[in-house]
Amino acid sequence: MNKKIEISGNGSSLSIKVNGYENPRAQNSHDANWLRCSVSLLGERFSAQFDAFFTTHDFFNFADELRKILNDLTGQAIFVCDEDAFHIKIEFTKTGAANVETIAKIYTQTKLMIIFSFASDPTFLGRTLEELDDLMQEYPIKN
Question: 38 burial class (0-12, 13-18, 19+ CB within 10 angstroms)?
Fold first, then answer.
């Protein structure tokens, strides 16, 4: 089943759709926890879509950090994958707003690096956390 998480604010958004386990029959936990994903970035005059692979651990760690900063309204939550090809950093400012910064490194025949940032707030990020919790129910860490 497909699940999606979205981070949005100020007319921009970043979404990750999980399309399933990459190798549902894998026997070892490292191979069994990879997920096939589609990433979409949408800004005022910009959009990008690309496929990516993340692990269940990436989402669980990000959810833990996001939960903490939403509770404290300070600090940062970071989503980073094993190869460091995709990175999200959410950091609260002193005014209670949140800055969202994404770096995507896409390696095909052409090398492309996208740096994408926008402002968000606790209301939007609370919905993101709910979507993460739902995603983790559907795609738990396999041992």
Answer: middle
Determine the straight-line distance between the first and last CA of the chain, rounded to whole angstroms. 20
Residue 49 CB contacts under 8 Å (≥ 6 apart), including other chains: 38, 39, 40, 41
Which one-letter amino acid corresponds to residue 47?
S
> Would you state the pLDDT for residue 96?
87
What domain count does the chain have?
A: 1
Give me the CATH number covering residue 58: 2.30.31.10
Which tens digit of pLDDT belongs to each residue from 9-67? 989 999 999 999 999 889 898 899 999 999 999 998 999 999 999 999 999 999 999 99
Confidence at residue 27, expressed as pLDDT on a 0 to 100 scale: 87
**Can you tell me the distance from the alpha carbon of 52 to that of 36, in angstroms, rounded to the nearest whole number?**
6
Residue 93, amino acid: T
